[in-house]
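Progress report, Aim 2. The chain analyzed during this reporting quarter is listed below.
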Amino acid sequence: MEITSIDYKEFLQNVVEMVEKEKDYFCELDRKIGDGDHGITMSIGWQAIQDKLQNELLEETDLAKISVVTGKTFLSAVGSSVGPLYATGFMRGAKVVKGKDTFTSDDLKDFWVAFAHGIQERGLAQVGDKTMIDTLIPFSNELEANYSKTNNFHQAFEQALVAAEEGMESTKDIVSRLGRSSRLGERSLGFQDPGATSVFYILRTFMETVERNNK
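Predicted structure tokens for the chain:
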């Protein structure tokens, strides 16, 4: 499988549109265990990225440059803790495709693993802390394991999405240990983490973009 820089920018634009569609839902989740602004925060960050896609990145074909600009733009637009996390994810992913204008299957696997691990290393969260890591690490582990067996990125990513969704849903049964929601203690039980949810939606948007462009 190959994904061009045009496909990659289309994915980023699709995330912009997804976030606008789902921002109220993300805020609703956050109101239950946080300050209720996760959807707004994500919208601000991705709207800034859209501006870059329509201007600075319009003719850009270097995948690393696109990823670095995406990460830095999100960071500068978003003041909350999620800014540095996504920035690190995209900038770690950029290292995988330095000087390239097309992802190979190996590149795609390495990009998403680097993305997930970069976010974990920056945020210092573990699976079970009720954060986006509960989505990302099961996703990353399944992607690596399945890809090593099949060498089929599409199949491996599909299976990884199943693990990601299970991880996202598992946050309902976790007491929050990090961030503002940790102050709720046992009262955070029963509610799905908004960050774990929005990152799952981003991963799913990537698969939807790939499938649409490879029909």
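Residues 49 and 73 are 6 Å apart (CA to CA). DSSP finds eight helices and two strands in the chain. These observations will guide the mutagenesis work planned for the next reporting period.
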